[in-house]
Recover the amino acids of this structure.
């Protein structure tokens, strides 16, 4: 925990943006605005605790915090919201309220004149089978581009800003049965490393091995290749890119027990395309975190709303001529990222 606080506090512009940035942007309207939020994990349940009983979880308060975030974005008139997964908690399934609770959270976005883009976390898959999710409001929406039957997608938010959304549970045992095409791959991945009776236990795992847990997952080889193609295509069009996924992919931006199984493969592709990459945004690790990788890409792990103890953690990003500025609420810091392709430099 302390580790993460120190990560946050040494972070860029913790107490506010430097004056030169403020001065530059003060008299300009952003080209595009979007909200970011992770791990709402709403349930109509009494408060509880995480697995290790170190952090309290406020299931009902989550809905209030989401409502406040949406109110903020309504005032800001954001163009879209990126919902980073685990929008409802697995408890909803146990209480047979999955549909009701999902509808209740999605209703919060109703009055917002903005597109809401979702990625799936482990809790979506605790509540719904994968094929049910594919037909739900959490699936890629029309206007997004994606291969058939895939939950990953890309969409051009602004002529010079592309969003690429990963399915971090494509290779997973969650929400599927043994007829699923990646079931064996997921099984073998866990079986090779995790020798515990229950694969959610990290007992005996050390270092980066700790990510081989059932509540994490991986991207298929096909998805990693698709990501590579998306980033190459973005570069050919002078588009800046934001990549999102529920699971973090940089070990210094999250606890090892929360990383994508094949984080190294995704990280390598992101590094190859540093010419167009701005940032990778994720959730899942409720403490949050931040770091830049060796290629200079920013990795922002948004703290979980469900366990928030220091305000309401969400972000609001503004796309300016030369920077993407993420204004942090709660314990999310302000983050200023230089664009790889300044706005107005599109190929003629
Ligand atoms: Zn999660």
């Amino acid at each position: 925990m302390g580790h993460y606080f120190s990560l946050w506090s040494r972070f860029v512009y913790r107490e506010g943006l430097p004056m030169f940035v403020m001065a530059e942007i003060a008299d300009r309207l952003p080209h595009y605005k979007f909200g970011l939020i992770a791990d709402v994990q709403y349930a109509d349940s009494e408060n509880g605790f995480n697995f290790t009983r170190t952090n309290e979880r406020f299931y009902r308060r989550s809905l209030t915090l989401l409502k406040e975030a949406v109110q903020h974005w309504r005032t800001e008139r954001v163009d879209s919201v990126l919902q980073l997964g685990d929008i409802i908690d697995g408890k909803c399934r146990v209480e047979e309220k999955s549909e009701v609770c999902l509808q209740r959270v999605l209703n919060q976005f109703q009055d917002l004149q903005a597109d809401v883009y979702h990625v799936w976390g482990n809790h979506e898959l605790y509540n719904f089978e994968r094929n049910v999710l594919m037909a739900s409001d959490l699936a890629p929406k029309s206007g997004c581009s994606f291969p058939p039957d895939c939950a990953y997608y890309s969409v051009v938010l602004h002529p010079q800003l592309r969003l690429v959304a990963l399915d971090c549970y494509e290779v997973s045992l969650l929400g599927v049965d043994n007829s699923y095409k990646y079931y064996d791959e997921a099984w073998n991945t866990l079986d090779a490393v995790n020798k515990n009776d229950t694969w959610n236990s990290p007992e005996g795992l050390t270092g980066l091995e700790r990510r081989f847990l059932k509540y994490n997952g991986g991207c298929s080889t096909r998805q990693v290749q698709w990501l590579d193609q998306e980033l190459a295509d973005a570069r050919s069009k002078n588009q800046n890119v934001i990549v999102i996924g529920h699971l973090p992919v940089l070990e210094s931006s999250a606890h090892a027990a929360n990383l994508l199984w094949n984080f190294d493969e995704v990280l390598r592709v992101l590094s190859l395309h540093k010419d167009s990459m701005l940032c990778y945004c994720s959730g899942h690790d409720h403490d949050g975190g931040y770091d830049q990788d060796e290629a200079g890409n920013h990795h922002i792990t948004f703290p979980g709303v469900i366990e928030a103890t220091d305000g309401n953690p969400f972000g609001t990003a503004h796309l300016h001529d030369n920077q993407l500025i993420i204004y942090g609420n709660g314990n999310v810091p302000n983050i200023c990222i230089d664009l790889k392709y300044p706005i107005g430099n599109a190929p003629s």
